[in-house]
Design a protein that fits this description.
The chain folds into two domains: 156 residues, no CATH class; 94 residues, no CATH class. Helix 2 packs across helix 3, helix 2 packs parallel to helix 9 and helix 6 packs antiparallel against helix 9. It is an all-alpha fold and 277 residues long. It has a two-stranded antiparallel sheet with strand order 1-2. The chain contains nine helices and two strands.
């Protein structure tokens, strides 16, 4: 059976031309760029097969199976990309002069970690919007409620303002009412999700006028809509939190993989990584 073993060879006196420190930045930048590029490719592939990481507010993203499968894909993606980047950082660096094997081991580990760090920063810059959607969590969920496109609460607001079938509707007035209701919901959720009695009463009046129902029926519909909105917001927060935890785990796995790969790449570079029978 072939088992990997690291063989300690005598230190070879070889000077790195133009080197002023123990850090080989060209190798680190090359490894980091490769890791970032592979991450983007794998992220695009994952989105293509259904692991969309940029829309955690959809109905599909709220399912447990989706969150787990996406989290596992994050980890696999980080492991593959970071391993390639770390290996290149270790393999492409120069050989140090008068350095003990233990020091070489430490420096290779550091090179892999630095390559992973550079790749992470580069990926965050390129994929900033996706990262904000993932780690923004509750803040992103609430902000998407406001404006002309309420987003997360579209269905809730439509149900709240639904009138009798076949009734004549003023499109401009309906849009203005919908936007106003969205703003009230957004303001209330930004304040903790507590709707004041004045806001509830005003919403009930709007619903009664818009849907053509009694004030009591409108108040019941408003209460049901608020409960539905709170449930939707809570699901979005939990989904974002779990995806953020998976992302954290993938980053840690990526750092570990890059360090190990850099050790192997550095050993192959120096000729100290062999297989013994």
């Amino acid at each position: 059976m072939l088992t990997p073993a690291r063989v300690e060879l005598p230190v070879i006196e070889e000077t790195v031309v133009g080197a002023s420190s123990a850090v080989s930045w060209p190798a680190i930048l090359a490894g980091g760029a490769a890791a970032a590029a592979i991450s983007i490719v794998l992220l695009a592939f994952g989105a293509g097969v259904g692991f969309s990481a940029v829309s955690p507010w959809s109905d599909v993203a709220s399912t447990t199976a989706f969150r787990v499968s996406t989290g596992l894909y994050f980890i696999v993606m980080a492991m593959l990309a970071s391993s390639v980047g770390g290996y290149l950082a270790g393999r492409l660096r120069g050989r140090w002069r008068g350095v003990t094997p233990r020091e070489v081991f430490f420096r290779d580990t550091a090179h892999g970690l630095l390559a992973w760090a550079f790749a992470t920063l580069l990926s965050a810059a390129v994929l900033g919007s996706a990262a904000n959607n993932i780690v923004g969590g509750a803040a992103s969920a609430v902000s998407r409620i406001a404006g002309q496109s309420p987003g997360l609460l579209n269905g809730t607001i439509e149900t709240l303002l639904r009138g009798e079938p076949g009734a004549t509707r003023d499109v401009a007035a309906a849009t203005a009412t919908r936007n106003e209701v969205g703003q009230i919901f957004a303001t209330s959720f930004q304040s903790g999700g507590d709707f004041s009695a004045a806001d509830r009463g005003y919403l009930a009046q709007m619903v009664a006028a818009r849907a053509g129902i009694s004030q009591a029926q409108a108040e019941e519909r408003v209460s049901a809509a608020i409960d539905q909105a709170k449930t939707a917001i809570d699901k979005a927060r939990k989904a974002a939190a779990q995806l953020a935890l998976w992302l954290t785990a993938s980053l840690l796995v990526g750092a570990f993989s890059a360090s190990l790969a850099a050790i192997e790449g550095g050993g192959l570079r120096d000729g100290t990584w062999h297989y013994q029978v």
